[in-house]
Design a protein that fits this description.
single chain, 283 residues, elongated, alpha+beta, 5-stranded mixed sheet, 7 helices, Outer membrane lipoprotein wza fold like, 3-stranded antiparallel sheet
Length: 283
């Protein structure tokens, strides 16, 4: 800034000296000194000389940078931004991820193949007929009691099949009935996991479940579990009493014994014995 200001002052002083010298030369050449009478010729010469002086002054000032403020503007200053932030559009991958999150939240929902059993709790809704809608529990004889149509067999049917049957029966009393059957509680389809698992107990069988999935739901094996001596007890409809099955975890996972990872059925009891019971069966 100091160098620029000094240069500017030098240019102004030079401009003033030039102006004085030009005035003297003009007075000598055109005779327009003190007491001289201006003529048309002298007036034209006067204006021409002043025009040259002003042009010279402007050229000196623009070359000296006297009018510059000395501030440096960043590149692109004064330009309006042309780029705007655009949110990414939804892609099939994004929609798939959202759908996966929703499916994870609904992972405990009952599958469409679920068959109603005794003691299950049902929520039956008849559209625009609140007096015909209610929550009912399936009786031990497999039936439910509803207004107008009275007893209806529910055991052995899916919720969709039961809704279609009730809709057909209500057509005799209600115009264009619409029935929805929702399973509120699963009390009939259970499996029992006992022995050396982290959380033994009764677990509802809401959908298809394999032997390994049942052990996973119960928290997995304990350290003392004899995982290759798993025993399953199952009721068989065609024969009295229960049937006993055995399975080995190592055979299923390591030796291609996938057939031992069979599907659990309602009422199955799965027992994981301890290693001490296997080594000393009499204890």
């Amino acid at each position: 800034m100091g160098v620029v200001a000094a240069a500017g002052h030098q240019n102004i002083n030079g401009y003033r000296a030039c102006l004085k010298q030009s005035q003297k030369m003009y007075n000598l050449n055109v005779g327009f000194g003190a007491g001289a009478v201006p003529t048309e010729r002298t007036m034209i010469m006067k204006y021409s000389l002043w025009f040259l002086i002003i042009a010279l002054a402007l050229a000196v000032s623009s070359g000296s940078g006297f009018c510059d403020s000395g501030s440096v503007k960043p590149p692109g200053a004064g330009k309006l931004p042309t780029e705007t932030t655009v949110l990414p559009a939804a892609t099939p991958q994004t929609e798939k991820a959202i759908s996966q999150v929703v499916m994870d939240k609904l992972s405990n929902a009952v599958s469409s193949e679920y068959v109603i059993g005794a003691e299950d709790m049902l929520d039956i809704t008849v559209w625009r007929n609140p007096d015909l809608s209610r929550q009912v529990q399936v009786r031990p004889d497999g039936r439910i009691s509803m207004p107008i149509i009275r007893d209806v067999v529910a055991v052995g049917k899916t919720p969709t099949q039961l809704a279609e049957e009730m809709t057909s029966k209500l057509k005799e009393y209600v115009q264009n009935p619409v029935v929805a059957v929702t399973l509120k509680e699963v009390n009939s389809s259970n499996v029992f996991l006992l022995g050396e698992v982290a959380h033994p107990g009764r677990y509802p069988l809401k959908s298809k479940m394999t032997l390994l999935q049942g052990i996973t739901i119960a928290g997995g094996f304990k350290e003392t579990a004899a995982r290759n001596q798993i025993v399953i007890f199952r009721f068989i409809e065609t024969a009295p009493g229960q049937k006993r099955f055995t399975a080995s975890y190592d055979d299923i996972v390591l030796r291609s014994g996938i057939s031992d990872n069979f599907e659990l059925k309602p009422g199955d009891t799965l027992v994981v014995p301890s290693e001490s019971m296997v080594v000393f069966p009499g204890r």
